[in-house]
Design goal:
Structural class: alpha+beta
Radius of gyration: 14 Å
Strand content: 25-35%
Number of helices: 2
Strand order of the largest sheet: 3-4-5
């Protein structure tokens, strides 16, 4: 943990009593549906398995001023976390 760490608490209908600790939290940004582009398909055989996991939970991407923001599908994230804990 550091001063930049943030705890994200998920809504109960997604997962009961689940929070996710992230290393860094940025500003909360509101974007319109028109700004969100389709997420790239998961790589068939990426050299780095973490790339496959990241694209599997990405719902879309949004271009911000000088940055690219991944939009995470929280239901897919919970499914992935449950699979890792088995």
């Amino acid at each position: 943990c550091s001063d930049d760490s943030r705890l994200i608490i998920l809504k109960p209908h997604l997962a009961e009593n689940l929070g996710i600790l992230v290393e860094h939290g940025g500003d909360i940004v509101r974007v319109s549906a028109e700004q969100i582009e389709e997420a790239p398909p998961p790589a068939v055989a990426a050299a780095d398995a973490s790339i496959d996991r990241a694209t599997a939970i990405t719902a879309g991407v949004c271009k911000l001023e000088g940055e690219l923001m991944n939009i995470i599908d929280s239901a897919k994230l919970v499914e992935a976390l449950e699979a890792l804990m088995q």
